[in-house]
Amino acid sequence: MNKNQELAELLFPGGKTVEEIEKQYPKRNLKTGAEVTRFAPSPTGFMHLGNFFQALIDYQIAKRSGGVFYLRIEDTDRKREISGASSIIMSIMTGYGIIPDEYELKGGVTVGDYGPYYQSERNEIYRAYAKKLVAEGYAFPCFCRKTEGLEDIKEKREKKFSTQITNEDKDVCRNLTFEQIEANIKAGKKFAIRLKSKGDGKRKIKFKDYAKGEVEILENCIDAILLKDDLTPTYNFAHPIDDTLMGTTVVVRGEEWLPSYPLHDEIFNALGYKKPKYIHNPLIYTFNEKGNKIKLSKRKHPEADMRFFDKEGYVKDAVIEYLTNLANSNFENWRKNNPNADYFDFPFDGFKITANTPIFDMVKLNDISKEIISKMTAEQCYEHLLLWAKEFSTENVNYLIKEKDYVIKILNIDREKSKPRKDLYKWSMFFELFDYMFGKPTSYEIDDNEKSEFSKVLKAYKKYLNLNDKDTWFENVKKMSAELGYATDNAEFKKNPEKYKGNVAKVCEYIRIAITGRKNSPDLFEIMTLLGKERVLDILNDLI
Fold first, then answer.
1. Of 25, 34, 84, 335, whose Cβ has the fewest other Cβ atoms within 10 Å?
2. Distance between CA 211 and CA 350 in Å, rounded?
3. Where do the domains of the chain lie?
4. Rounded CA gap, 375 and 397, in Å?
5. How many percent of the chain have pLDDT more than 90?
6. Is the CATH number of domain 283-375 1.10.1160.10?
7. What pLDDT digit, counting tens, does each position of 269-302 carry?
8. CATH of 1-281, one of 3.30.70.360, 3.90.1720.10, 3.30.1370.10, 3.40.50.620
């Protein structure tokens, strides 16, 4: 037994060997071309839109290749862990149909043979690998008080990946003798395990990134921490071990991790393991009030929290389609040519993720959601609305159930037509959008200088109000318009506008404002028919 092996046994007496552990994780039996991907979030808060974006890419790559998509919870940072975060992550994923093939429920069922799927339950594995690296001269114990300074290079990892982080000097503990280390351990001193880097920070390495292309970057030369002083792993150490043992073939992660690649490259090489394919996807940005691009922030942007879309009542397919288009920009053209196809029919290519910075645009999301909702039947809309209200608008549930038929009729206005209306894009806006169907308008889009004429039209309309059928109703409106000095022939109105107060469209606008408070609304006749003649007259009398 040489000195390195003696040191490894001193630091980690007994325990399983790497060879014994590897037998527990046999190579996956997959067809040629099948990819294994993982979504590996930390349970340190809500699920960020950017994390879900990565999960969607992971899912698509695995499913389209006939492979495996699994969930691994990276919960080694106990100080920042938030209770219940893992459940939220799983709930959101399954709610959007992004269901992992392998996962573990805390305190519950485990699905899959490559667990544990919580990193906190894999500490025995990391210690065995740390022992192996020490025994082979690739790692050493560090007794310095500050053992987390280089843990994952958080402060510097967001710099452009063309610059490499280097140590001014190698860690002083790398040169301790066996006797000094033994004395420290007998004295009860805590230690971390650092990589004994072989690099000098001058040589460049090259690798293929499936989002960025060919990348050239300086090699690693830092003695990075592998195990912290509580002997839990850093991401930098757990990543090569877990993704190798669990058979991951593709790692999707944010481009902020690119500067860490040289470190991971060196650890993979030290372990003797083959590296997976990497996709460093661009981070999602948005615009601030000044029109400048800024990263989508947990603190500043509510839409950064995936729960936002559920609370607001967005259609889940709209969120999926929008993020799919951010990943593969040709989705939008495909959707135009395939308006009724399922989004999964789109030939998504996980290895052609856009390298451009994706901009999250709520207006664009709203347009996609409008399009999807416009194709639903009124009954489908009602079921979605009721399901949303049961969780996020409980005060309206009883009304929705009691007045089901009336609500469905409201939802059916201007629906199921060749050009259905597209004003509804989230369920939370239903009662505000159709407030005039549940009570009288509280404001009216009428200018002060029009109020006198507005009143004259409404007084006259009371006498001509007929809701038996649409044609009769409109003929009555035209007859009334002529009597009040409005043109009923648009061609004539365009020739001689000075002869008239306006045209029939202006009269209809006044009636629309009286009933709904707005200049624009769905079909006016359908609205009045649903309200009923008595209620319409009541509204008119109040205004007059």
1. 84
2. 9
3. 1-281, 283-375, 377-433, 448-543
4. 24
5. 82
6. yes
7. 999 999 999 999 999 999 888 888 999 988 889 9
8. 3.40.50.620
